[in-house]
């Protein structure tokens, strides 16, 4: 089951636009939404789903608007939330800025879009490029002539318009990977995973069919090739243009791409990777006086362009930066962040520096009286680092591009 009705409310909870898809929930039930929301905010227990009797409110907030979907039965919550966020995306494509004023000025188009986006509580056409072909800004003008259904509505390839022509056919592919690595104080790896996405920018004429081959371990097993250079993909998610039957058969990603930018797929790799950045930290406690922290941060085999290191000290223990090399390398430092309910300040120091530097020493200022006593346990949060790393993919193989070997997780693109 999905949504029974969809409401767009202003910041005070007054309905601006509503659409009842099923009729099993009274439209007056929306009057209970804002009191429930304010009550949860006062209690500090705000949730994305609120209930009043048998009616459930699934809501999101965008700018000064609330988008609320009501349901009476056990609905697919993830589907409803995806629809609400997609609705915001479609409205933003039409009105540039989705605000209360844009809703009031374009209520006719908003109603038309709501009719096309969902039918009897189930999402239908949610691609803004397809919707713009038959719901235009001049939709209220009377046009005489023979009625004709836009071809993209009845076409099996609803995500791509017909008749596209380019002087130069081009396809750009970006492989973006995020490495999540958790290491304990002894240097042992507790968690190691790679989360990646493959994004395409397509400028092709007509209805081309593309094929993308991955060095998937299942594919290598099917074809009898060596699995030394293969990876095991997990949690694979595809764009709707991918032919899943072809992928299940021979693990080839065959698709007719949408025009422009889109995300083809996402995946996850559970594999042991060598850290691109290494960290050594030493904490030395001096009796009744101070605690000294020495953090050494250095690059691995690859150099990152920019690295951010966050150090958080215990409550009441301020950090005074004393770099062991020239302060001209620092590009940003931040102050303290208050911790609620304790009346203490939790210093969170951010340091940005080039990863080519060898080390960084950060001894703190003297601790407050009694903080370093023998019966007082001091707890330090883990060191957190973040950095971009271009032209290098951790879970990659090699392929040929214009005669040169480049790093990428695929081996064939036609």
Computed over alpha carbons, the radius of gyration is 28 Å
Helix proportion range: 10-25%
Secondary structure category:
alpha+beta
Task: Report strand %.
Answer: 35-45%
C-alpha end-to-end distance: 40 Å
**CATH-defined fold name of the largest domain:** Beta-Lactamase
Query: Largest beta sheet: what is the strand line-up?
Result: 2-1-5-4-3
Unreliable sequence segments: 138-146, 320-375, 396-414
User: How many E strands?
Assistant: 23
- Average of per-residue pLDDT values: 71
Q: Provide the domain count.
A: 3
Overall morphology: globular
Largest sheet data: 5 strands, antiparallel
- CATH class category of the largest domain: Alpha Beta
- Under the CATH scheme, which architecture of the largest domain would be assigned? 2-Layer Sandwich
Helical stretch count? 8
């Amino acid at each position: 089951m999905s949504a029974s009705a969809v409401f767009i409310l202003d910041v005070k909870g007054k309905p601006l636009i509503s659409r009842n898809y099923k009729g099993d929930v009274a439209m007056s039930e929306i009057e209970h939404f804002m009191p429930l929301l304010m009550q949860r905010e006062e209690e500090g227990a705000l949730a994305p789903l609120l209930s009043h009797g048998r009616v459930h409110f699934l809501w999101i907030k965008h700018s000064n608007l609330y988008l609320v979907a009501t349901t009476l039965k056990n609905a697919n919550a993830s589907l409803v939330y995806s629809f609400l966020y997609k609705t915001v995306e479609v409205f933003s494509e039409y009105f540039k800025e989705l605000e209360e004023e844009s809703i009031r000025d374009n209520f006719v188009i908003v109603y038309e879009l709501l009719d096309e986006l969902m039918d009897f509580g189930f999402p239908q056409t949610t691609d803004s490029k397809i919707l713009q072909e038959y719901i235009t800004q001049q939709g209220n003008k009377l046009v005489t002539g023979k009625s004709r259904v836009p071809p993209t509505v009845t076409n099996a390839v609803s995500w791509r318009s017909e008749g596209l022509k380019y002087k130069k056919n081009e396809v750009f592919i970006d492989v973006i990977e995020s490495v999540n690595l958790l290491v304990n104080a002894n240097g042992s790896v507790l968690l190691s995973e790679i989360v990646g996405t493959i994004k395409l920018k397509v400028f092709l004429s007509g209805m081309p069919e593309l094929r993308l081959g991955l060095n998937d371990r299942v594919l290598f097993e099917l074809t009898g090739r060596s699995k030394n250079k293969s990876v095991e993909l997990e949690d694979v998610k595809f764009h709707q243009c991918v032919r899943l039957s072809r992928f299940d058969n021979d693990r080839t990603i065959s698709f007719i791409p949408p025009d422009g930018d889109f995300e083809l797929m996402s995946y996850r790799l559970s594999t042991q990777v060598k850290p691109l950045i290494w960290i050594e930290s030493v904490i030395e406690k001096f009796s009744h006086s101070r605690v000294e922290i020495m953090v050494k941060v250095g690059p691995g085999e690859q150099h990152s362009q920019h690295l951010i290191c966050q150090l958080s000290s215990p409550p009441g223990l301020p950090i005074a930066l004393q770099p062991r090399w020239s302060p001209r390398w620092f590009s940003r430092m931040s102050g303290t962040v208050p911790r609620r309910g304790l009346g203490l300040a939790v210093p969170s120091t951010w340091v940005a520096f080039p990863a080519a530097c060898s080390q960084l020493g950060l001894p703190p200022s003297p601790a407050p009286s009694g903080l370093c006593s023998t019966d007082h346990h001091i707890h330090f949060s883990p060191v957190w680092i973040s950095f971009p790393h271009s032209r290098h993919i951790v879970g990659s193989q090699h392929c040929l591009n214009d005669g040169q070997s480049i790093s990428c997780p695929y081996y064939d693109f036609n």
